[in-house]
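Subject: design request, 224 residues
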């Protein structure tokens, strides 16, 4: 069976939005600096418009995440399960994606999306009777030094080994990620609020500069 595409409509849309916001931010910074230094009202106006578009895009993204969180969870689950089933340390084409998942499992101390049992469906582990296990899932420090790939069971197992025989974390990464978000919700909201405040200040500053330039231009007009 060919592996399914490692993407989803919602994640693709989110990626395109982030790319667009990044490009717009670069353009915005250039226009803002140029407009402020040379006192060009139209550039300051474009700077204000760009900031407003970015702020509205962030609000829209937050609303989409909030109202479509169950859909996003299902789509992300499909992607991760497919990644686990086709995980292959020798596959250079998927190296970045696999390294990212190894990093998640290592940092959150979790295994699989809902649990380690999902790794039993991996083709490589299944062909080796599950006598190996993902190193990034391990609860032993010496396995974590490997960073990724598969580690061998040290204790022999009669017959086919199962995930219960692996020295890995029991918690699935879905629960781990949700718990991490809950624990760091205050920091996340604080950063988002800070960014929004900075953007609003930038909008206010650009309006103030435009008014000052307009006032200076008005005073320079010779009276008849």
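Subject: RE: design request

Done. Sequence follows.
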């Amino acid at each position: 069976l060919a592996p399914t595409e490692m993407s989803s409509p919602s994640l693709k849309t989110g990626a395109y939005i982030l790319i667009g916001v990044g490009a717009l931010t670069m353009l915005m910074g250039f226009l803002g600096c140029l407009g402020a230094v040379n006192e060009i009202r139209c550039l300051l106006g474009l700077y204000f418009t760009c900031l407003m578009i970015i702020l509205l895009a962030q609000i829209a993204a937050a609303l989409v995440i909030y109202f479509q969180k169950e859909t996003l969870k299902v789509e992300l689950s499909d992607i991760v399960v497919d990644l686990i089933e086709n995980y292959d340390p020798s596959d250079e084409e998927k190296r970045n994606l696999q390294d990212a998942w190894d990093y998640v499992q290592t940092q959150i101390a979790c295994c699989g999306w809902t649990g380690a049992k999902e790794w039993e469906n991996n083709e490589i582990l299944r062909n080796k009777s599950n006598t190996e296990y993902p190193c990034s899932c391990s609860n032993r420090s010496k396995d974590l030094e490997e960073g990724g790939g598969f580690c061998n069971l040290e204790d022999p197992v009669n017959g086919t080994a199962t995930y219960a025989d692996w020295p890995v974390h029991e918690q699935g990464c879905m629960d781990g990620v949700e718990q991490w978000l809950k624990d760091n919700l205050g920091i996340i909201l604080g950063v988002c609020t800070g960014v929004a405040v900075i953007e609003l200040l930038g909008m206010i500053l650009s309006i103030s500069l435009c008014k000052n330039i307009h006032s200076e231009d008005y005073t320079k007009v010779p009276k008849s």
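The helical segments are 9-38, 41-67, 69-85, 95-108, 123-127, 141-144, 173-183, 185-220.
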